[in-house]
Task: structure prediction
Amino acid sequence: QVQLVESGGGVVQPGRSLRLSCAASGFTFSRCGMHWVRQAPGKGLEWVTRISTDGSNKYYVDSVKGRFTISRDNSKNTLYLQMNSLRDEDTAVYYCAKEGIAVAHDAFDLWGQGTMVTVSS
Amino acid sequence: QSVLTQPPSVSGAPGQIVTISCTGSSSNIGAGYVVHWYQQLPGTAPKLLIQGNINRPSGVPDRFFGSKSGTSASLAITGLQAEDEADYYCQSYDSSLNDVVFGGGTKLTVL
Result:
């Protein structure tokens, strides 16, 4: 079954850390660029970070640079997001998404169900 | 403030046609980067609706049409149905930001 399943969300105090995971199945994970996209309560989608197929290239939105780290383990078909120094404004549903392989900057053709991260004291 | 600008809301009666615009600039849509559209039903994850400006993935009804011209793109929905009530987002790439960018989203209400 082709799917992405996120886990690791929860309630965390400001300044603390959390690690999200995204388990992929049903497709060749190692061939696909992967992304994290978040959605604050009642707000729109915000792209957070991207990692290349072999993990050598990583890109981040300015608001998380230096605090979040994306990584992947192709042997385990799993994507990760290490979130440090969490802030109230990081509260959101976090989705992992698979990028298509047909063209450069292809669409996100598969999304996970999302995992909620709440940063609150 | 999103890099790609969408109207916050649109509405239409069943059977009508609605269009949702997505306005960018010379560093994203105008630079030739492709535009994708997603549908997000209430309480669910986004789903790819249109990819590469005009292409419908398998399973997407042929009532959905994408187009692009200059620094803008549009999503048209014909024969509006109650089940089309959702939030719609456009997405592209911006070379100045070196980032993926989303529009702010448009809430479609079927009257």
In short: The interface with chain A takes residues 2, 33-34, 36, 38, 40, 45-48, 51-52, 57, 87, 89, 91-93, 98-105 of chain B (CB under 8 Å). Chain B has a mean pLDDT of 96.
